[in-house]
C-alpha cells in the first residue's frame, strides 16, 4: 500500500454505519396511497440506494453494513459498495440493528458505529459529516426525525453498546436510555425520513437523490 494511503487502524475516527432494510415487498406500506402498489417497493429501493450512496460519499465513513434479506436490494446496494449482512435474527428492526453492529465489530471490535434509517432520499454527505462530528463527542447520541417523534440516527462510540430502540416515539426512548440528543440546525436531510406522500414532497423540497428523483419524477410525469 502506498505511504500516501496508510491502512486505517483501530485508532482512527472513521465510522461504520448500519442501515436496516425490510424486504421490498413489505417496505414503505404507507407510501402506497401516493405512489401506487407497483412503484412503492422500487421507491423504497431508490431511497435506500440514495441513502447508502450519500453515506459512502461522507468522508467520516469507513464502511456501510446493510442488514437485509431482500435479493434485489442486496444486489443493488452491494454494487454501490455496501456490505450485506443477512437478517438472521428476523426479529424486527432493533434486532436487525444489533445484529449489524455485531457483524461490524466481529471485524473491528472497537469500531465507532451508528445506525441510520434507509429512507433518507435527500441525504447530503456534508450534513451527515456534521452529525457524526458531534456524535463522536458522546458515548451514545441520536438525531430525532423531522417530526421530533422518531429517530433517524443513533451512534455508539468504541466499546459502547448501541442499544437501539427505534420504532414509533423512539426519541423519548433514546433520551430515557441516556443517549444525548443532537440538536444541530441545518441537518434537515439527515432528519427527513419518508413514510408518506407528504414526507416525500418535503424531501423533494430539500432535493431528492438521483435514483429517487429518476423513479419518482418519471412516474409523476
TrEMBL record:
Any Pfam family matching the protein: NTP_transf_3
Catalytic reactions on record: phosphoenolpyruvate + GTP + H(+) = enolpyruvoyl-2-diphospho-5'-guanosine + diphosphate
Domain MobA-like NTP transferase per the UniProt entry, residue ranges: 49-140
E.C. numbers: 2.7.7.105
Top-level lineage group: Bacteria
GO molecular function: phospholactate guanylyltransferase activity
Pathways involved: Cofactor biosynthesis; coenzyme F420 biosynthesis
InterPro entries: CofC, MobA-like_NTP_Trfase, Nucleotide-diphossugar_trans
Keywords tagged on the record: GTP-binding, Nucleotide-binding, Nucleotidyltransferase, Transferase
Enzyme class: transferase
Binding annotation for phosphoenolpyruvate: 151, 167, 170
Assigned protein family: Belongs to the CofC family.
Entry function: Guanylyltransferase that catalyzes the activation of phosphoenolpyruvate (PEP) as enolpyruvoyl-2-diphospho-5'-guanosine, via the condensation of PEP with GTP. It is involved in the biosynthesis of coenzyme F420, a hydride carrier cofactor.
Name of the protein this chain belongs to: Phosphoenolpyruvate guanylyltransferase
Record organism: Streptomyces exfoliatus
Classification of source organism: Bacteria, Bacillati, Actinomycetota, Actinomycetes, Kitasatosporales
Gene name tied to this protein: cofC
Amino acid at each position: 500500500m502506498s505511504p500516501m494511503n496508510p491502512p486505517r487502524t483501530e485508532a482512527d475516527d472513521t465510522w461504520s454505519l448500519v442501515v436496516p432494510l425490510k424486504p421490498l415487498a413489505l417496505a414503505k406500506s404507507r407510501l402506497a396511497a401516493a405512489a401506487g402498489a407497483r412503484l412503492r417497493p422500487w421507491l423504497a429501493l431508490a431511497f435506500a440506494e440514495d441513502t447508502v450512496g450519500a453515506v459512502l460519499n461522507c468522508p467520516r465513513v469507513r464502511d456501510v453494513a446493510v442488514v437485509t434479506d431482500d435479493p434485489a436490494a442486496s444486489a443493488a446496494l452491494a454494487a454501490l459498495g455496501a456490505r450485506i449482512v443477512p437478517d438472521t435474527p428476523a426479529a424486527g428492526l432493533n434486532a436487525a440493528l444489533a445484529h449489524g453492529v455485531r457483524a461490524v465489530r466481529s471485524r473491528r471490535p472497537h469500531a465507532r458505529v451508528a445506525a441510520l434509517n434507509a429512507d433518507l432520499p435527500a441525504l447530503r454527505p456534508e450534513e451527515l459529516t456534521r452529525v457524526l462530528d458531534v456524535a463522536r463527542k458522546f458515548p451514545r447520541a441520536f438525531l430525532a426525525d423531522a417530526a421530533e417523534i422518531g429517530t433517524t440516527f443513533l451512534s455508539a462510540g468504541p466499546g459502547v453498546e448501541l442499544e437501539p430502540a427505534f420504532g414509533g416515539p423512539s426519541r423519548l426512548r433514546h433520551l430515557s436510555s441516556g443517549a444525548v440528543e443532537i440538536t444541530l440546525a441545518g441537518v434537515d436531510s439527515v432528519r427527513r425520513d419518508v413514510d408518506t406522500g407528504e414526507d416525500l414532497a418535503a424531501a423533494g423540497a430539500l432535493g431528492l437523490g438521483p435514483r429517487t428523483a429518476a423513479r419518482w419524477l418519471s412516474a409523476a410525469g
